[in-house]
Design a protein that fits this description.
It contains eleven helices and 19 strands. It is of the alpha/beta class. Helix 4 links the parallel strand 12 and strand 13. Helix 3 crosses helix 9. The model has no long low-confidence stretch (mean pLDDT 94).
């Protein structure tokens, strides 16, 4: 079978290789790939900036945003051939830590978790893949190809879950949310904010292209003016930061309303220094009871929340969120940015 493989720490090592066919072991599904989402993490691994191979190997099968169709399923598993499924990305550490032992492996305390297509376990970027039944999530067939959005939506579902848990420390009735960044994570965060009945605003540097229309068609408001102007005017109750741009992070933290919550989902690059008045920032956070939380990855509960959100979303809007579908044979094009890209997906014929 064909598989998209990479040698972590080696730039430009992404290849389409012939590898042995996947085989399901006891308690596993055998799945035929249908689509694979490409995200910033995949691009970082392909660029040699991140990633870890399975023990004893020098190449990693890439891909963690999966969608496939069950070919074989164990008797009594609850799955049947033909089911649409996605595979969960992270697995708990072998000890396990307290969080992993309770199914919260997205909050692993000791860092010995593994992740499909990222850290020490092959991903879903092959024509066939196997997955443990406990780490497979069955989709409503009506979701169809939009099911490839399940994993990124799970990340956003977790972020909103964290916001609401933190808000619950006292009376919490947010009205206005600002999402910074109109990439897939930002747009999905906006979707979940609209589903909560909030006044949603999305900030991105792109003044035209598909992003403004996607935001407006959600019933949200799009902004492309400077961040400082937007946040000082809105004073949002919640900010979901999805860019990782350091200056935007600090502007968000400094300009929420009282009891504001900033959820950081974007990972910032290192090596760039910013100057900020830390004393004033600290004073504002303390005196206004603000909270800042980082959120990454998701556990199975968040995948199920994601499916609930996708089921409520307009299907035509989800289809437009996927701006390009690239055949597996043309994988290099999926890793090359186009001006109008929102979400790029690799398809398996």
């Amino acid at each position: 079978m064909r598989a998209l493989t990479v040698r972590p720490d080696h730039p430009d090592s992404l290849e389409l290789d012939e590898v042995p066919d996947a085989e399901a072991r006891a308690g596993e599904l055998l799945v035929r790939a249908r689509a694979l989402g490409v995200c910033g993490t995949d691009k970082e691994i392909a660029a040699g900036e991140y990633g870890f191979t399975p023990p004893g190997r020098d190449r990693l099968v890439l891909g963690h945003e999966s969608l496939g169709e069950v070919v074989e399923a164990p008797s009594g598993s609850g799955f049947t051939p033909g089911d649409l499924v996605v595979g969960v990305v992270r697995r708990p550490d072998p000890e396990p830590c307290g969080a992993c032992a309770r199914g919260e492996f997205d909050m692993c305390r000791n860092g010995r978790y593994v992740e499909r297509g990222i850290k020490e376990v092959d991903g879903y970027g092959s024509e066939l893949w196997a997955v443990e039944t406990d780490y497979a999530v069955r989709l409503d067939p009506a979701l169809g190809d939009a099911g490839v959005l399940t994993e990124p939506t799970s990340v956003v579902a977790k972020a909103w879950d964290q916001v609401e848990r933190i808000g619950g420390r006292a009376w919490f009735e947010p009205r206005t949310v600002l999402v910074t960044g109109a990439g897939p994570i930002g747009l999905l965060a906006a979707l979940l904010g609209v589903q909560r009945g909030l006044d949603v605003h999305v900030l991105d540097r792109m003044a035209d292209g598909p992003k403004p229309a996607l935001v407006r068609d959600l019933g949200a408001t799009y902004h492309s003016e400077p961040m400082e102007d937007v946040v000082s005017r809105l004073r949002p109750d919640v900010v979901v930061e999805a860019t990782g741009v350091g200056a935007l992070v600090f502007d968000a933290i400094a300009n929420t309303g009282s009891y504001g919550i900033v959820c950081l989902t974007g990972v910032s690059p290192t090596g760039r220094n910013l100057t900020t008045d830390v004393g004033r920032l600290n004073r504002d956070i303390v005196l206004e009871n603000d909270a800042i939380v980082g959120s990454v990855n998701a556990n199975i509960r968040h995948y199920r929340l994601a499916l609930d959100a996708l089921a409520e979303a307009p299907h035509d809007w989800l289809a437009r969120l996927v701006s390009r579908r690239v055949p597996l044979a043309d994988f290099h094009d999926a890793f090359t940015a186009h001006d109008d890209d929102v979400k790029v997906v690799i398809t398996f014929g």
